[in-house]
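// run 5 | inverse folding | seed 20
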């Protein structure tokens, strides 16, 4: 969901956005909120992500796990928000949410859906590099594998993270199993739109930890998202398919 733009006479990417990714995801805006539509896999992933997010914020800020609004008084940023599948639950958890995506079609769909559900979310058509301010919680789910420069992307996230803040993100692992499930099967049989993923952009956890360190971030936790025929997608210690990371400065 990102594009590379170059300043005159420069070879350094000034934004994480890849134009082709914007077009690919922008096409999904019409049925993003349909649990049986083109984004059905995201609907299946979202409860798994939310379970991890809730556990990590409770641990990080020593919150009451019974609280219905644990993020009250905190600013949250959802990067690569799509049409708001994660931003809306973050708002319901009490956060003051800013959510960004470079695809204008997705932001339009997000605003319409949030308005229809009485939610106040600051949706913006933007890349992370264009944003100012700092946030207590930053989420970037299934985004880094779509960026032009993962190291620069993490650096930008780090700059937006407030002191004592928490960064949470997820991404496919760079394994043969992940390629089989995510690309060969899921994309091959239409569970995910074809062309969504490129295996050469998948990042293994060991490499990700090095990228985090390069951005001045410390890895706090790595959790797996596994798939099984009886359980479907679920949190697991197995990171071979997909994994979530919690990090802080």
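// decoded
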């Amino acid at each position: 969901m990102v594009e590379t733009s170059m300043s005159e006479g420069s070879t350094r990417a000034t934004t994480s956005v890849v134009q082709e990714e914007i077009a690919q995801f922008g096409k999904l805006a019409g049925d993003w909120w349909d649990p049986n539509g083109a984004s059905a896999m995201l609907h299946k992933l979202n409860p798994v992500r939310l379970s991890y997010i809730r556990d990590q914020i409770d641990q990080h800020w020593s919150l009451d796990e019974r609280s219905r609004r644990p993020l009250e008084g905190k600013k949250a940023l959802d990067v690569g928000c799509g049409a708001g599948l994660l931003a809306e639950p973050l708002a319901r958890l009490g956060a003051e949410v800013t959510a960004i995506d470079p695809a204008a079609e997705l932001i339009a769909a997000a605003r319409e859906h949030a308005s229809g559900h009485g939610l106040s979310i600051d949706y913006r058509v933007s890349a992370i590099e264009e944003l100012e301010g700092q946030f207590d919680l930053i989420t970037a789910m299934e985004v880094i594998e779509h960026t032009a420069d993962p190291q620069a992307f993490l650096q930008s996230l780090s700059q937006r993270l407030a002191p004592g803040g928490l960064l949470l993100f997820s991404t496919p692992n760079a394994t043969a199993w992940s390629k089989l499930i995510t690309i060969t099967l899921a994309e091959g049989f239409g569970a995910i739109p074809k062309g969504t993923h490129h295996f050469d952009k998948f990042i293994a956890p060991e490499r990700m930890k090095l990228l985090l360190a390069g951005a001045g971030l410390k890895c706090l936790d790595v959790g797996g998202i596994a798939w099984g025929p009886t359980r479907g997608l679920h949190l697991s210690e197995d990171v071979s398919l997909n994994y979530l990371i919690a990090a802080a400065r």
